[in-house]
Amino acid sequence: MSKLKGKVVLITGGARGVGAETARRLVAKGAKVVLVDLDREPLAALEAELGAGNATSIVGNVTSLEDMEAAVAHGVQTFGKLDVAMANAGIASYGSVLAVDPATFRQVVDVNLNGVFHTARAALPALIETKGYMLVVSSLAAYAASPGLVAYHASKAGAEHFANALRPEVGYLGVKVGSAHMSWIDTPLVQDAKSDLSAFRTMLDRLPGPLGNTTSVEACADAFVKGIEKRKTRISVPGWVNGIRWLKPLLTTPVGERETARHAHEIVPLMDQEVLALGRSMSARTAALEDDKQPVTQ
């Protein structure tokens, strides 16, 4: 019998991508899920797909603590408890520091970092009761940086360190804290960037070894479910990402930055030109949802 049977898992950014696929696999193992997102139609569709006894959903914005408190209360009221909270909602921006729209930069940090705080702040009282597990979805971007994606990298590095600081704060209360670190996953976020920017595609092509490869959403969700089941401190997708964690001190030296710096003169101006031509610092899909105050799941 799976250790997840009967567990209640809250997932932000649960309507699409990794959040939705993780929810499907959790339910298949006997868990119940509380889906939180602002993308209303796919959110309702996923709840219906999973079934009322297995899933419940609530529209909520991770940039609002009140929304996250309401989401947790909804989940506890529906299923009686909360065992796991997965802070998964995330967005990205395009362009260098000199080119990115400042409002977009702030929005990325608000969703990717403040959203993690709001999720944890709202969920922790319930998780303390069940001696549960908090999963913060960070990224390989917390270990290794790429030009033109500063807001994403900075916010994901912050999310990782948030998890590291939270771990001892609640560990003695019986709550385990993990962080997830993925390379490029074949989500709409990555698909949109590839479609919008030849500079992004060039950057991936120039990355050494497996660093530019893309992993399927299904494989990522499988790793997440295994990590949640084992209450892991770190989840790496693919597994080689954990090796990059150990190389992080080297990657921030002149030697480690040499490969990225070697192509920056080509990639950064091209990306900034393309961002200017697009007239936006994020994908059209994300921009449309942001106009409706609807963050996109990763």
Can you offer a commentary on this structure?
With 298 residues, the protein is of the alpha/beta class. The chain is built from 11 helices and 9 strands. The protein has a single domain (8-291), classed as 3-Layer(aba) Sandwich (Rossmann fold). The strands form 2 sheets. It has a 7-stranded parallel sheet, sandwiched between helices. The chain has a two-stranded parallel ribbon with strand order 7-8. The radius of gyration is 18 Å and the shape is globular.
Distance separating the two termini = 30 Å
- Low-confidence segments, given as residue ranges, are none
State the major sheet: 7 strands, parallel
Helix/strand structural class: alpha/beta
N-to-C series of helices and strands: EHEHEHEHEHEEHHEHEHHH
What overall form do the CA principal axes indicate?
A: globular
Calculate Rg over CA atoms. Answer: 18 Å
Tell me the CATH topology. Rossmann fold
Fraction of helical residues: 40-55%
Strand residues, percent: 5-15%
Mean pLDDT: 93
The DSSP helix count reads 11
CATH homologous group name: NAD(P)-binding Rossmann-like Domain
The multimeric state of the shown protein is: single chain
The strand line-up of the biggest sheet is 3-2-1-4-5-6-9
Report the strand count. 9
CATH class value: Alpha Beta
The tally of domains stands at 1
CATH architecture: 3-Layer(aba) Sandwich
Write a brief structural summary:
The protein is built from eleven helices and nine strands. The chain is of the alpha/beta class and 298 residues long.
Helix and strand arrangement:
Elements: E1 8-12, H1 17-28, E2 32-37, H2 40-50, E3 55-59, H3 65-79, E4 84-87, H4 102-130, E5 133-137, H5 150-171, E6 176-182, E7 184-185, H6 188-196, H7 198-206, E8 214-215, H8 217-230, E9 234-237, H9 241-251, H10 258-278, H11 284-291
Parallel strand pairs: 1-2, 1-4, 2-3, 4-5, 5-6, 6-9, 7-8
Helix pairs in contact: 1-8, 3-4, 4-5, 6-7, 7-10
